[in-house]
Amino acid sequence: MAEIEVLPTNTSLTVLRLKNLHGAYIDVLNLGASLVSVVVPDRNKNFKNVILRYDKITDYLSDAYYLGSTIGRVANRISNASFRMDDCIIYLEKNDELHSNHGGFSGLNRKLFDYSVRENEAVFYTESLDGEGGYPGNLKLEISYSLSDKNEVIICFRAKTDKKTPLNLTNHAYFNLSGEDDVLTHKLKIESDVFLEMNVDFTPTGRILSMDENPGYRFKGQNTIGEMMRLKNETIKGYNAYFIAKDTQRHLKKIATLSSSVSGIYMNLLTTLPGCMFYTGDYISRPFTSFSGLCLEAQHYPDAPNRHNFPNIILRPNEVYEEKIVYAFTN
Question: Among 67, 119, 122, 234, which is 20 to 30 Å from 148 by CA?
């Protein structure tokens, strides 16, 4: 069972630290219910923070990279910042040229969450009001964080709405298991056979492509990410691709394994969600550098409200949205 304490910040922001029996710990910030530290042992039993973080907690107030944040109401892009629902067109905030990305300017990453401690969980909760970002419905949201004695970071999402609304929540931590300047020496295995084809603006075309027919996307864990990049025949160097899990059923299953030969740390990503977005951090800059951290964002299909061949993400009144993401670390 994790020990939970409130860390002093000398600001209006609050950080909760969850520490397990073996000394591993995570820090969670009430702004965006954001994961700001994940400290686990490497092969030499030295404790290492394996996600990107700012040096000052106040830097999260001006964060532009969604660092460790809760993302929503809808993770990823909604093309043309609009979608049709019940014969009406819903218009959203445009914050990515023509598109709405990660909930727009009113995304959950900018909200100050209330919090409480419940047994071995830190629980964050907030409400997204009807019309925020253009989304319909008053949405009540609860996110819990826990840390097991097996070094598993467990994130549970729970939400209800009073009107139909699309919902697709994820966590946006940037992982670097090695402690080196970039993640190109990491190896990645994704439990998938297919991925979504993307336009140049990172919105899906609707086509589903085979990993086996695209060497640069065949993440079987044998090659480093840097080696895989060289197999791509694309202008964009890195990755911003959505992979559909082999097992899309709504139960907890492993969807990816990330590893570093430098630190000896492995991370298994488990989730109830049907796939994950793999992003190599191409567009982050000061105080970080491109490729200094990567995201594995377990989530529903991007742009689902505009793609009738993608699974539906509409949450209805009297339904409960419940999903789980687990980052399980070993060495």
Answer: 67
**Residue that the structure tokens 């830190």 belong to:** 122
146 phi, psi to nearest 5 deg: -145, 160
Instruction: Return the DSSP state at 180.
Output: S
What are the extents of the domains in the chain?
3-330
> Cα–Cα distance between 186 and 191 in angstroms, integer?
17
Please give the mean pLDDT across all residues of the chain. Answer: 96
| pLDDT at residue 12 greater than cutoff 90 | no
| CB-CB neighbours of 241 under 10 Å | 22
Q: How far apart are CA 135 and CA 73, in angstroms?
A: 8
Hey, which CATH number is domain 3-330, 2.70.98.10, 1.10.287.1040, 3.30.200.20, 3.30.2310.20?
2.70.98.10
Q: Is 325 left (phi over 0), alpha (psi -120 to 50) or beta?
A: beta
The two tokens of residue 175 are: 């992982």
The pTM assigned to this predicted structure is: 0.96
pLDDT of residue 316: 98
> Which amino acid is it at 216?
G
Three-state DSSP string of 187-233: EEEECEEEEEEECCCCCEEEEEEEHHHCHHHCCEEEEEHHHHHCCCC
* 204-210 sheet: strands from edge to edge: 204-210, 192-198, 240-245, 275-279, 295-299
Which among 325, 90, 307 has a CA at the least distance from the CA of 206?
Answer: 307
Tokens 């480093």 belong to residue? 224
Phi and psi torsions of 108, nearest 5°: -65, -20
- C-alpha closest to that of 73 among 11, 123, 28, 139: 139
- Lookup: tokens for 174: 């940037």
Q: Do 32 and 169 contact (CB within 8 A), yes or no? A: no
What is the spatial distance between Cα 265 and Cα 262, in angstroms, rounded to a whole number? 8
